[in-house]
Amino acid sequence: MKRVILKYGIIFLLTVHIFGQTGQDEVRISAKIGDNVLFVGNSIKFEKKQEFDDILFNEVMPACLEYRDPDDEKHKLNQKAFDKWRIFRPTEMNEDSTWTFIFMADPFIEGSNYLITNPLIQKYGEKDADEVFERWSNCLKVVRVYL
């Protein structure tokens, strides 16, 4: 377990370093001492990288951006949390021929929705949301969550 955490920690630090060096994204840390940070590492099957990327940015992210929780307080938390999300795309394939997309909530906002199910259902309806989620899931080899 420590080896996996170390591996993804190194990947994360390298990604931050690369973005910081190229100027593509400013390195910023939002969490304060005592805050939790959520990391989700999605290992994507070799042949599914482009499909996952397309689903993520053309279907999932628009649904999340447009999502309106019926509870006003929960909606405010969701908006605050979404503003703190960062997505790191892989630049190299892993040794096992997978691609790792890293999602980071910095900081983790307790009580907010970090799942894609409700946004997908609200945007596409239950049947189409199931289809999007099935295609998303078929791209995954492993999902790791660290809080």
Describe, in plain words, how this protein is organized in 3D.
The chain is α+β, with helices and mostly antiparallel strands and 147 residues long. It has one domain (2-146): Alpha-Beta Plaits, CATH 3.30.70.100. Helices cover 50% and strands 17% of the residues. It has four helices and four strands, in the order H-E-H-H-E-E-H-E. It has helices at residues 2-22, 49-66, 72-83, 117-139; strands at 38-44, 85-88, 99-105, 140-146. A four-stranded antiparallel sheet has the order 2-3-1-4. Helix 2 packs antiparallel against helix 4. The longest helix has 23 residues, at 117-139. It is flat. The model is unreliable at 1-24 (pLDDT under 50).
Helices, strands, pairings?
Layout: H1 2-22, E1 38-44, H2 49-66, H3 72-83, E2 85-88, E3 99-105, H4 117-139, E4 140-146
Antiparallel strand pairs: 1-3, 1-4, 2-3
Helix pairs in contact: 2-4
Query: Structural class of the secondary elements?
Result: alpha+beta
Number of domains: 1
Q: Could you tell me the radius of gyration in angstroms?
A: 16 Å
Instruction: Give, in spatial order, the strands making up the sheet with the most strands.
Output: 2-3-1-4
CATH fold annotation? Alpha-Beta Plaits
List the uncertain runs.
1-24
Number of DSSP E strands: 4
Taken as a percent bin, the fraction of beta residues is 15-25%
